[in-house]
Design a protein that fits this description.
CATH architecture: 2-Layer Sandwich
Order of helices and strands: EHEEEEHE
Helix content: 10-25%
CATH topology: Alpha-Beta Plaits
Strand content: 25-35%
Radius of gyration: 12 Å
Oligomer: single chain
Largest sheet: 4 strands, antiparallel
Number of strands: 6
Shape: globular
Number of helices: 2
CATH class: Alpha Beta
Distance between the termini: 24 Å
Amino acid sequence: MLYTDKMKIIQKHKDCIGCGTCVVLCPDFWEMDEGGKAKPKQGRRNEKTGDYEFEIEDSKGVCNKDAAEACPVQVIKIV
């Protein structure tokens, strides 16, 4: 069996300021929504908190790490 490391990405959507940095740095995973805020292209939204969550293989997450580090309001967390 092949084991791959996964990373979980959480975005506090309500606190996003819509700067678009994550979209520029990681366009395969992030897009702008109709309200002018960034959101992940995949995953699910927690209806209670409004946060988005998704998991990907660690090897595919390099640009997500860059997006999390560059976010001026630090709403993207990698766990």
